[in-house]
Amino acid sequence: DPFWRVVVQSLRGEEQHFFDHVVVATGTNNVPKRYKYEGQDTYLGTVLHSGDISTWERFDNKSTVCVGMGESGADVCLSIARRPGASVTVSIRSNPGWIVPRFRGSMPSDMMTNRLLWGLPRRVGGL
């Protein structure tokens, strides 16, 4: 089977991880940002942007690396992790900042931050 090899440099040294899929979740508010990675042209597996995913069955019994931890990336990672036999590793560039629960009560967490707060004119309540 084809796989994607991710090499990580950390204080512990170099580590290698292997994945069946790569999901790139780096778009901002549904505008895809598609990056090219070294070796991508010869990779025989699947590289997807989060906007390309229409069904989740393709991730069953597979290991996936998800590049990016924005709202879409977090949603994709959670959805894949809930698939039978699936595993997900998240790759981020630097400090992840705040990772909050997807829901606060029955309301999505980002309804109170991104969509509501940032969508309002500044004088009404946006930052």
Description of the structure:
This protein has 127 residues and is an alpha/beta fold. 12% of the residues lie in helices and 28% in strands. The chain has 2 helices and 8 strands. It has helices at 71-81, 114-117; strands at residues 4-10, 13-19, 21-24, 46-49, 63-67, 87-91, 103-104, 107-108. The strands form 3 sheets. A 4-stranded parallel beta sheet has the order 4-3-5-6, with helices on one face. A hairpin with a 2-residue loop joins strand 1 and strand 2. It is globular and about 45 Å long. The chain starts with a strand and ends in a 10-residue tail after the last helix.
* Proportion of beta-strand residues: 25-35%
- Helical/strand content category: alpha/beta
Separation, N- and C-terminal Cα atoms: 48 Å
Q: Report the average pLDDT across residues.
A: 77
Order of helices and strands: EEEEEHEEEH
Strand ordering within the main sheet: 4-3-5-6
**Backbone CA Rg:** 17 Å
Described by the principal axes of the CA atoms, the overall outline is globular
Tally of helical segments: 2
Low-pLDDT residue spans: none
Q: Biggest sheet, open or closed, and with what strands and sense?
A: 4 strands, parallel
How is the secondary structure organized here?
Elements: E1 4-10, E2 13-19, E3 21-24, E4 46-49, E5 63-67, H1 71-81, E6 87-91, E7 103-104, E8 107-108, H2 114-117
Relevant terms:
127 residues, alpha/beta, four-stranded parallel sheet, two-stranded antiparallel sheet, 2 helices, 8 strands, 12% helix
Summarize the structure.
The chain has 127 residues and is α/β, with parallel strands linked by helices. The protein has 2 helices and 8 strands.
